[in-house]
């Protein structure tokens, strides 16, 4: 009897798996029969006219990281399908473990037609495979698609591999970082927004010592920072001090930022802040959530790094704890020499690739690019970024105002937000309607930032050593930087670590970047 | 059971009780914090970091997670996979463990060694993925069960328990005309209820915690078990994903939602233990022997 | 009522290994044919899902590229192993791993046993079950939660423990960033999360002890502690040794998540272990071959440890795991 039940179980499992296998085959056949008609369709009407209805919808499978709590329902997808005449299958995978999924799918040849990467690091890792010809080059085709053709050439340039374009990019403002601070505290203490790094220091000090919350207890700190040099306060402040953005020319050669004296100045700045007690003492171990919690509980006055646009979500929780708190943003902080500077990202945060293992021929590729061409129209980009007008947002003064039903947006829209290619300048989607004065200010500052923006000269350059050992080597510098700020390393000690970085592969990175730079 | 009523016995009991009560308190407080945190507002959580009793009660977090059927679907998947997986695993594990527990089985040392070997050497994610793919298990629930059907650790522990059963019992059953299957199901398993309960619990918890298999083998997110949802929310809300870039388009979910999901995803599996506990009572083995 | 026989857990008497003739072996194989049938599903499982994929270990001798596959990737011999052994921090990382493992064995390992014995000595079924349920709760909290709750308690910036220290006039302690506090914090968190869960196996083997043994010893006037020492402990010795041997195999395999969450720039000198190193140097940079080579190294060390301890346990008359 037991043996029977076991064989029964085994055979039922077998049947199950056979069933699913058959299902897969059917799909493929269906796709194959649909394909010819569809592809002839594109060849004749390669326009963005959404009225070309009678065609069979193109089937596209898309894999992308999930940055929200849950995969969104089909509400938005169905609308997009209608407009773009496609049949879309979105496969979301948690961002946290997206690399594992990406790697195993790639190694087993099971990537779908459209593959979103996770960030610039995953893009870097894919470069070798891209050079090997695993993905379609799309550069020459772009001119056939009027909307894709609008993508910013300088950013496309940053995503090129060996001078060829393989990807579409998901755009991000070049420089959103700056200060979010307690305007009410500053006003109370008679402080203006800090015009230079000295005033910034003075503000942190005053916020700590002069009881800005007026409760009679010295229980506030100036700055709250976290365990992150780049997206925490450090890099942003370092660029105010005049430190280059990752790399810059020095004696005619590209050199890394931490070999510049301004980098040391920045470390001294934070060291003094920490020693004075003007920032959280555990910042080297503080996660983003803990830093944010300190800020919204009304215990800290300055939050630097990250996006100034975060002011909305910080404000939301802060005023629950401190009802009369007022936040503002600021980013024009001059360095010791009186100059403004702002580091910039390469203009994208993620890219889309088209694997040859899934996209059979150029005709199919064009079908898919056509979908992305649609995505670059205001109609589709608004749909994917803001949702359905009237349901998820309304248009006020030519800007999008999201509905107050945050849950609805969180559920139905957010999942697609990070997949919209281009940026509002190119895809024509609405900018957001802001109410909070600090947020409106932030939007102005984001534009101001770019005027004094400093680009990373290595953004489009390649270094084999950086690709294979960069993260590991960077850790040497990160550790040394924190140790310096905590007073455990002096300047000589820090320089010794820089030498250590060089001898363990950094020298090769310098060499390789310079070779690529002069090319 | 005869109570020990001597003075030293009472002192012993009192000390023991006090110590355990303290330990239990320490272990349970953070849990109370999580439950309390799920019933308050994110602002209060940020302000009073170690909330034990909410000052402001709020059910928003639960309202949010129960506002769609996702969490019910995910719980359903997890319960189904855990039930079927545990039954299946116990069945094949018990068969193998019993076979290997018999000292008169030739080659048992080799088999045992080969099992231990798999605890140390792993082929890696990609070759295993290929096996699952070749078997046609992609996107089927079986992919959550078959690749982890037997835990070498559990098998060895169960085998250990089986070995402790006096061999005489098996001999006499054999004389009564039982074959090996009969001995296993009529004698050995009923005598090993504490062990069966333990190993079932281990399997159940493993299946309940299934995460990576789901991510790798299930492309259809409608089939994801609860852990995927749980981990996604916990990681997003904890800001501990060091590899995440500066990405401000989507602010993380509230801390309270994180707490609520932990509660919802943990309660069902916590409820398993009390049901199994009665098998840990003293003399369970002998009790069933008398019958 | 019940005849008190020898405790069920007795030192096993291995059957004689020599066979008088091959026909006797054949006879025995035939007699045990059903036992072999029972092994079939298990053996199949291990072959298909464990042994077959082990071909993947080959990539530790290659420069594996996912798109070239195992057949197409270039052979590089021992390159990745020598990279590991010549890594300037290798000895430090190895030492850190071994120290944490040592703490796991010396400090953590006995605790579930003691806890199980204490729980077993509780009088009254209700309290017994109640406490058991409570102490096993923490196992269900992920490390992310454990670490973030600890952070809130011990941070210099308003954590309860440091506030208390300050209140009583002590100076604050930088638990999170000082290398000296990393290991105590680590092992305390391990104990907190796992000790209660670890009692379950022991409680199950205690449950299998014949109550008659206790009654007999009580008649002899033995106190509670003596009973624990002379009856309970010997009865669970076998399972303790089995668990010990299995644990020894994970000597370099401490797991990545917990340590990684505690790791920061200030405590890296003591907190970087092999598994966190693999994550930064291998996985985060797509270095499949290097990661696999390090895994291979870990496995071999684990295997040597298991085989050694297993041999010792057999020498002292215990059964061992194989």
3D architecture notes:
The complex is a heterotrimer of chains A (519), B (291) and C (322). By secondary structure, chain A is an alpha/beta fold. In chain A, 47% of the residues lie in helices and 14% in strands. In chain A, strand 13 (393-396) and strand 14 form a beta hairpin. Residues 1-50 of chain A have low confidence and may be disordered. In chain B, helix 4 crosses helix 11, helix 8 runs antiparallel to helix 11 and helix 13 (226-238) packs antiparallel against helix 14. In chain B, 50% of the residues are buried. In chain C, 66% of the residues lie in helices and 1% in strands. Chain C contains 16 helices and two strands. Mean pLDDT of chain C is 89; it is low at 1-14. The relative contact order of chain C is 0.13. Chain C has a two-stranded antiparallel ribbon.
Give short descriptive properties of this protein.
heterotrimer; B: 291 residues; 69% helix; C: mainly alpha; 2 strands; disordered N terminus
SSE layout and pairings?
The complex is a heterotrimer of chains A (519), B (291) and C (322).
Chain A (H helix, E strand, L loop, with lengths): L1 H43 L13 E9 L8 H10 L1 E9 L3 H10 L6 E3 L3 H12 L21 H6 L9 E4 L5 E6 H6 L8 H13 L11 E3 L9 H8 L6 E4 L2 E4 L4 H16 L11 H9 L3 E8 L3 H11 L5 E4 L11 E2 L4 E6 L8 H14 L2 H8 L7 E4 L2 E4 L3 H7 L1 H4 L6 H4 L9 H15 L1 E2 L9 H22 L5 H28 L1
Parallel strand pairs in A: 1-2, 1-3, 6-9, 11-15
Antiparallel strand pairs in A: 3-12, 4-12, 5-9, 5-10, 7-8, 13-14
Chain B lengths: L6 H32 L3 H6 L12 H6 L4 H32 L6 H13 L4 H10 L7 H4 L6 H12 L3 H9 L4 H12 L1 H16 L3 H6 L8 H13 L16 H16 L1 H6 L6 H7 L1
Chain C lengths: L21 H10 L1 H19 L10 E2 L5 H4 L1 E2 L3 H8 L3 H19 L1 H12 L3 H12 L6 H12 L5 H8 L11 H29 L3 H9 L4 H25 L8 H6 L5 H4 L2 H9 L5 H28 L7
Antiparallel strand pairs in C: 1-2
Protein name (chain B): Carbohydrate ABC transporter permease
Pfam families (chain B): BPD_transp_1 (PF00528)
Subcellular location (chain B): Cell membrane
């Amino acid at each position: 009897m037991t043996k029977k039940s076991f064989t029964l179980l085994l055979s039922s499992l077998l049947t199950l798996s056979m069933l699913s296998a058959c299902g897969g085959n059917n799909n493929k056949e269906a796709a194959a029969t649909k394909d010819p008609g569809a592809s002839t369709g594109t060849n004749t009407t390669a326009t963005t006219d959404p009225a070309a209805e009678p065609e069979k919808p193109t089937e596209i499978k898309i894999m992308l990281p999930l940055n929200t709590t849950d995969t969104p329902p089909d509400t938005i997808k169905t609308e997009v399908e209608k407009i773009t005449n496609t049949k879309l299958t979105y496969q979301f995978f948690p961002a946290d473990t997206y690399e594992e999924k990406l790697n195993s799918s790639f190694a087993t040849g099971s990537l779908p037609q459209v593959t979103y990467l996770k960030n610039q690091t995953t893009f870097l890792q894919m470069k070798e495979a891209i050079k090997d010809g695993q993905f379609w080059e799309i550069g020459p085709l772009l001119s056939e698609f009027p909307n894709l053709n609008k993508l910013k050439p300088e950013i496309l340039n940053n995503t090129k591999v060996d001078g060829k374009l393989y990807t579409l990019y998901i755009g991000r403002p070049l420089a959103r970082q700056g200060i979010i601070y307690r305007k009410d505290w500053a006003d109370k203490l008679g402080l203006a927004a800090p015009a230079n790094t000295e005033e910034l220091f003075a503000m942190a000090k005053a916020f700590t010592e002069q009881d800005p919350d007026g409760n009679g207890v010295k229980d506030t700190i100036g700055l709250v920072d976290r365990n992150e040099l780049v997206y925490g306060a450090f890099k942003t402040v370092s660029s105010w001090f005049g430190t280059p953005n990752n790399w810059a020319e020095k004696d005619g050669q590209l050199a890394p930022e931490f070999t510049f004296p301004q980098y040391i100045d920045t470390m001294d700045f934070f060291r003094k802040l920490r020693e004075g007690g003007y920032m959280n003492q555990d910042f080297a171990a503080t996660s983003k959530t803990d830093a944010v919690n300190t800020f919204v509980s009304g215990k800290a006055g300055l939050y630097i790094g990250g996006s100034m646009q975060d002011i909305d979500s910080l404000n939301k929780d802060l005023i629950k704890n401190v009802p009369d708190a007022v936040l503002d943003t600021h980013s024009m902080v001059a360095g010791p020499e009186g100059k403004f500077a702002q580091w910039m990202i390469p203009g994208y945060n993620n890219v889309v690739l088209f694997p040859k293992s899934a996209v059979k021929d150029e005709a199919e590729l064009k079908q898919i690019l056509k979908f992305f061409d649609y995505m670059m129209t205001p109609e589709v980009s608004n749909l994917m970024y803001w949702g359905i007008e009237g349901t998820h947002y309304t248009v006020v003064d030519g800007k999008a105002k999201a509905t107050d039903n945050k849950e609805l947006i969180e559920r139905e829209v957010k999942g697609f937000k990070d997949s919209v290619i281009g940026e509002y300048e190119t895809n024509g989607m609405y900018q957001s309607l802001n109410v909070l004065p600090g947020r409106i200010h932030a939007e102005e500052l984001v534009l101001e930032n770019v005027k004094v923006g400093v680009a990373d000269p290595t953004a489009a350059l390649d270094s084999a050593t950086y690709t294979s050992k960069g993260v590991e080597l960077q850790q040497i510098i990160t550790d040394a930087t924190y140790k310096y700020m905590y007073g455990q390393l002096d300047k000589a000690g820090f320089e010794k670590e820089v030498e250590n970085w060089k001898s363990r592969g950094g020298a090769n990175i310098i060499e390789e970047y310079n070779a690529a730079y002069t090319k | 059971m005869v109570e020990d009523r001597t003075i030293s016995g009472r002192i012993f009991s009192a000390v023991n009780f006090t110590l355990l009560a303290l330990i239990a308190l320490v272990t349970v407080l953070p849990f109370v914090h999580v439950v309390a945190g799920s019933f308050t507002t994110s602002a209060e959580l940020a302000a009073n970091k170690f909330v034990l009793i909410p000052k402001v009660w709020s059910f928003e977090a639960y309202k949010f997670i129960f506002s769609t059927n996702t969490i019910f679907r995910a719980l359903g998947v997890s319960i189904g996979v855990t039930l079927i997986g545990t039954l299946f695993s116990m069945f094949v594990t018990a068969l193998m463990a019993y076979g290997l527990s018999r000292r008169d089985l030739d080659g048992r040392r080799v088999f045992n060694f080969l099992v231990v070997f798999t605890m140390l050497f792993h082929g890696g994610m990609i070759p295993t993925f290929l096996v699952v793919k070749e078997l046609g298990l992609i996107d089927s629930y079986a992919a959550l069960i078959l690749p982890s059907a037997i835990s070498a650790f559990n098998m060895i522990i169960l085998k250990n328990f089986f070995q402790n059963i006096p061999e005489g019992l098996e001999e006499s059953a054999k004389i009564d005309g039982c074959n090996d299957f009969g001995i296993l199901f009529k004698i050995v398993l009923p005598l090993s209820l504490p062990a069966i309960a333990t190993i079932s619990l281990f399997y159940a918890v493993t299946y309940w915690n299934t995460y990576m298999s789901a991510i790798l083998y299930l492309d259809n997110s409608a089939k994801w078990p609860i852990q995927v949802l749980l981990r996604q929310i916990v990681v997003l809300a904890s800001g501990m994903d060091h590899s995440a870039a500066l990405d401000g388009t989507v602010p993380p979910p509230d801390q309270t939602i994180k707490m609520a999901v932990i509660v919802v995803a943990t309660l069902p599996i916590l409820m398993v233990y009390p049901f199994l506990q009665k098998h840990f009572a003293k003399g369970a083995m002998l009790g069933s022997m008398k019958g | 009522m019940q005849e008190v026989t020898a405790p069920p857990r007795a030192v096993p008497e291995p059957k004689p290994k020599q066979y008088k003739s091959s026909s006797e072996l054949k006879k025995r194989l035939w007699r045990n044919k059903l036992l072999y049938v029972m092994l079939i599903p298990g053996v199949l499982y291990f072959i298909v899902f464990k042994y077959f994929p082990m071909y993947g270990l080959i990539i530790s001798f290659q420069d594996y590229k996912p798109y070239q596959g195992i057949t197409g990737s270039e052979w590089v011999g021992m390159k990745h192993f020598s990279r590991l052994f010549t890594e300037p921090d290798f000895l430090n990382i190895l030492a850190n791993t071994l120290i944490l493992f040592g703490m796991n064995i010396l400090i953590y390992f006995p605790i579930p046993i003691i806890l199980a014995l204490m729980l077993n000595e509780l009088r009254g079924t209700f309290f017994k079950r109640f406490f058991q349920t409570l102490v096993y709760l923490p196992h269900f909290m992920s490390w992310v939660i454990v670490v973030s709750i600890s952070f809130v308690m011990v941070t210099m910036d308003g954590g309860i423990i440091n506030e208390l220290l300050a209140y009583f006039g002590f100076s604050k302690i930088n638990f999170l960033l000082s290398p000296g506090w990393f290991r105590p914090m680590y092992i305390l968190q391990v104990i907190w999360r796992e000790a209660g869960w670890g009692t379950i196996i022991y409680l199950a083997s205690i449950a299998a002890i014949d109550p008659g043994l206790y009654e007999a010893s009580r008649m002899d006037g033995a106190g509670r502690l003596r009973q624990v020492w002379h009856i309970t402990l010997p009865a669970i010795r076998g399972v303790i040794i089995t668990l010990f041997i299995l644990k020894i195999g994970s000597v370099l395999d401490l797991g990545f998540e917990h340590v990684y969450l505690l790791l920061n720039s200030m405590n890296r000198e003591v907190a970087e272990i092999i598994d966190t190193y693999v994550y930064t140097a291998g996985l985060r940079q797509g270095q499949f071959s290097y990661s696999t080579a390090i895994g291979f190294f870990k496995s071999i060390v684990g295997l040597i440890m298991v085989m050694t301890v297993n041999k010792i346990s057999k020498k002292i008359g215990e059964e061992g795991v194989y």
